[in-house]
Amino acid sequence: MNYELIVSQIENKLKIKYPEVMNTLYGIIRAGSTGGEIISEIGYYLLSLEKINNEVFEIISDEIRVFLRAGNEEGIYFRYS
User: Of 1, 12, 48, 81, which has fewest CB within 10 angstroms of its CB?
Assistant: First the structure.
């Protein structure tokens, strides 16, 4: 999965109004040691936006679905409660 492409698409929508979301995503990428770890952490963060910032979640809901679907295709399953 090319998580960088999806993060770039998210950045195009959020960079001006929601820089804190982009800072968090780039922090996750910098802190990750493997691609699987980065994908997993980004996925859980994107899912958490539904509760912590629903406005952002709605803006990027299409990108979130694409990201989660791509993860599932690679055997990375996201469960959020």
Answer: 81
Question: What is the spatial distance between Cα 38 and Cα 51, in angstroms, rounded to a whole number?
Answer: 21
pTM for this model (two decimals): 0.89
Helix (H, G, I), strand (E, B) or coil at 26: helix
Whether 80 and 48 have beta carbons less than 8 Å apart is answered as yes
Q: What is the pLDDT of residues 20-74, one digit of tens each?
A: 999 999 999 999 989 889 999 999 999 999 999 999 999 999 999 999 999 999 8
Distance CA 67, CA 65 (A): 5
> What is the pLDDT, as a whole number, of residue 80?
62
Q: What is the largest CA-CA distance in the chain?
A: 33
Residues written for the chain = 81
